[in-house]
Automatic annotation (TrEMBL):
Belongs to the glycosyl hydrolase 130 family. One of its GO terms (molecular function) is glycosyltransferase activity. This is Glycosidase related protein. The keyword ATP-binding does not apply. Keywords: Glycosidase, Glycosyltransferase, Hydrolase, Transferase. Gene3D superfamilies: Glycosyl hydrolase domain, family 43. It comes from Lacrimispora saccharolytica (strain ATCC 35040 / DSM 2544 / NRCC 2533 / WM1). InterPro entries: Glyco_hydro_beta-prop_sf, Mannoside_phosphorylase. The lineage of its organism: Bacteria, Bacillati, Bacillota, Clostridia, Lachnospirales.
Amino acid sequence: MNNKTMVQEIGIKRCTHNPLLKTEDVTPSCENFVVKGIFNCGAAKYKDEYVLLCRVAEAVESKAEDEICFPIVEEKDHESFFRTITIKKSEHPQLCFDDARTITKGRDGNSSVVYLTTLSHLRLARSKDGIHFALDDKPTIMPNANEESWGMEDPRITQIGEVYYINYTAVSPNGAATALITTKDFEKFERKGILFLPENKDVAIFPEKVGEDYYAFNRPVPKGIGTPDIWLSKSPDMIHWGGHKHFYGVSEEGWENGRIGGGAPPVKTEKGWLKIYHAADRNNRYCLGAFLLDGKNPEKILAKSQQPLLEPEMDYEVNGFFGQVVFTCGCIYEAGNLKIYYGAADDSICMAEISLTDIYRHLGIR
């Protein structure tokens, strides 16, 4: 049985309106900006609306062949704003411009990132039906000029009581850290600062305490020794995290042999914690899978995907700014069904839906 047949048999269904949000739906933040992608959104229900907090990536249009322009964030009078930097390639022979996403110094595995060619901010989209979304026409949350001068990426939303906890990747020349913002109404936002130091991302926070502690998945990226694996951490207050334990690592072969990460915040079910995660192979082909974890001990894996739950197959998933990618940061569970909102090819937002019964079948659970 091939993977495609399995995906069809378990009943996962892509929304017929995919992609739900595309680059052409986004108003650029500045006159000379070009929207490169809207993707990797956090998802939540707020009152009677579906809310997506989307990552919007923008670049600056270069006017000369020898030039490359890119945005950064600076601050004046306590307000963040975008500034454009222009580099003449011929004047910087030490820099490498081969990757459309980065400008690096050095080559052959010894390179270091000097600048990103795109910069991401967070923008809100609202919907009554979970399919047709109205997107803000300007950034909802701007990066700050300190820990986020290179942008804010991949937000995830966890609701605990009346508070929505938004964790995201804060990118700067110091690295990719994980920061936290809270809100009660998606209008006023309060920054809580850095939670996990660089390089650590793909953080997914549980929606309630398990025992005496809050739990969060995270994905540090070791250099030299180790691989990009999922870790599990605990906190008494959502701010101070410790008790770090390795949770699950990449495989030697197959669709999980490159990197593996936290995906969407876990969902509580009668059988335990359901966790949608992502994994990539060594060719950077990203797929989605699922874990079922013990309800009282999230370190204990009860079942796990043996084949991808969702993999890049449609044209909008295979071709794009960074193709062969399906990547989720947010799911919404209601009425026995899980809506998985995912980034496709790093330039659009899509949704697939699956019943809890079919996820259990996929995991081999009766």
